[in-house]
Structures are given as structure tokens and as C-alpha cells.
Specification:
By secondary structure, this protein is mainly alpha-helical. It has seven helices and two strands, in the order H-H-E-H-H-E-H-H-H. A two-stranded antiparallel ribbon has the order 1-2. The longest helix is centred in the first third of the chain and has 32 residues. The N and C termini lie far apart (about 50 Å).
Length: about 210
């Protein structure tokens, strides 16, 4: 039986969802193998919190519900994969921290708390590539339109402060640039959704209240 365009579109969404999950699991296992040897260093708490942070991303991605509409744009996929998966390539925090490790740990916990609250608000609506799993207007989304990304910025800044090195600075900087481009791409994707238009009216700022 020949597939209709609607069936073909659902098939594309399914395989796109599966591809995201497979890549995410593989990169997380690679991150864990690199972080494991660093847990005997002074920065073990930062590295451990960072692993927990990425576990949360993994769990919510694996448990999310299927998308009714997902972006099939190569540009959107490039931005989403780059912004989401580059942080999994960081090296463990080692060497002399720029701030006391306790300060970096507090910043890390604040970031984890922020993006976890966003994930709990979305519940199974969380995803990597822009996909419509329902628009949420409550929780931290009343403060900024992209609280999850704001939390990511904080956790990634924390690991840079705890153990700066040129490699991690390059990786995280690229991730931040892609993250900003990604959120603009997502807003274009959701722009035709009346619920998202309502969110934009209620929540003016994207990442940082009164700034951006």
C-alpha cells in the first residue's frame, strides 16, 4: 500500500526522534568514560555535577512523547545537534580554578535547578530538535522564554570557571553561539502557533530578564 504524505511525515518524525536519542546516548557514554577518571581530583564535585546535569538531559530525551510536528530543516538540525552535543565533548575540569570550587558548584546547581524546573514543566514535551509537543506557558517560562538554555549557560560557565583550558573554552563558546542561533530558529518554527504567540506576549525576554 502506498504511503500518503501524512504517513510519510509521521515516519520522518519517528526516525528523526530515534536518531536524536541514539546520538545522545553514544555521546553521553563517551563523556562518562572521560569524566570517570577525574573523580579523584579536587574538582570531582564539579565534574560529578556536570555528569548528573547531562544524565537529566538524557533521561528527559529518552522519555519524551512523540512529536506531532518536527523541523526537518538541515540548518535547524545542525544548530540543535551542535548546541546540545558539543557540551558532551568537554574535558573534565582540572588545574587551577578561576573561582573557589564552592562558587562554581553553587553556579552549577543553580543552572541544573533552572533547566530541571523547565524540563519538569515540559515533562515529556522536552526535545532536542525543534518539534511541537505542546506549548507551555507556566513555570519558569513566565520569566524567560528559554529557561532551559539559560540553565545550560550557567552549568557550562561553571565547568569553565572550575577548570579552564583552551579546549573547553572553544567547545563551550561554539555551543553558546549555536544555542543563540538555535533559539532564534526555534522561534521561527513555532511562530505560526497561536499558543507560542501568547507566550511571546507574556514573556518578553529570551534568556536574561531585562537584558535579552
Amino acid at each position: 500500500m502506498e504511503q500518503t504524505p501524512q504517513h510519510y511525515k509521521k515516519s520522518q518524525c519517528f526516525y528523526a526522534d530515534m536518531l536524536e536519542k541514539v546520538v545522545l546516548v553514544c555521546l553521553f557514554l563517551w563523556l562518562l568514560s572521560r569524566m570517570w577518571t577525574s573523580f579523584e581530583s579536587a574538582s570531582w564535585i564539579i565534574n560529578g555535577l556536570y555528569v548528573i546535569d547531562q544524565i537529566l538531559v538524557l533521561v528527559f530525551c529518552l522519555l519524551r512523547r512523540p512529536a506531532t510536528k518536527i523541523s526537518l530543516s538541515l540548518w535547524d538540525w545542525t544548530l540543535a545537534f551542535g548546541a546540545s552535543f558539543l557540551p558532551l565533548l568537554v574535558k573534565p575540569a582540572t588545574g587551577s580554578p578561576l573561582v573557589p570550587l564552592q562558587v562554581a558548584a553553587v553556579l552549577m546547581l543553580m543552572g541544573v535547578t533552572l533547566h530541571l524546573s523547565a524540563k519538569l514543566t515540559l515533562r515529556r514535551g522536552f526535545g532536542v530538535v525543534a518539534a511541537n509537543r505542546g506549548i507551555v506557558l507556566s513555570g519558569p517560562y513566565r520569566l524567560v522564554r528559554h529557561p532551559m538554555y539559560a540553565g545550560y549557560f550557567m552549568t557550562q560557565l561553571a565547568i569553565l570557571l572550575a577548570g579552564p583550558n583552551t579546549y573547553n573554552v572553544c567547545i563551550v563558546s561554539m555551543a553558546w553561539v549555536l544555542q543563540v542561533l538555535r533559539l532564534h530558529a526555534e522561534e521561527r518554527f513555532y511562530s505560526r502557533d497561536a499558543a507560542y504567540a501568547e507566550l511571546c506576549k507574556r514573556t518578553r525576554y529570551r534568556i536574561i530578564p531585562y537584558i535579552y
